Amino acid sequence: MEIDVSGTVCPQTVLIVKRCLEALEPGDELTVVGDYPPAERTIRRSCHKHGYGVSTAATTDSESEFALRIRVTSAAKS
Predict the structure, then answer these.
(1) pLDDT class for 61, splitting at 50, 70, 90?
(2) 8 Å CB contact between 9 and 1
(3) UPF0033 domain location, by residue (predicted)?
(4) Chain-centre distance of CA 26, in angstroms?
(5) 10 flagged as catalytic
(6) Contact, 43 vs 4, CB < 8 A?
(7) Interval 18-41: pLDDT, tens
(8) Catalytic residue from among 4, 8, 10, 35
(9) pTM (2 decimals)?
(10) pLDDT at 76
């Protein structure tokens, strides 16, 4: 699954990501792209805190400032 949070700022970005992650099962991945660098840091922190795996993802969208790949683990807590 991929979502684009461009044009949104915190805390809205984290709430959007959280809602999407709740719909996924362990082993699934969510790719998040956005244009607000502080949101990247906030999303990373929130995901690490709740047990999700986070890595940088490649993006072909030149407008995006960041792209993250979030992996749902069996230990993840929404």
Answers:
(1) low
(2) no
(3) 3-27
(4) 15
(5) yes
(6) no
(7) 999 999 999 999 999 999 989 999
(8) 10
(9) 0.87
(10) 87
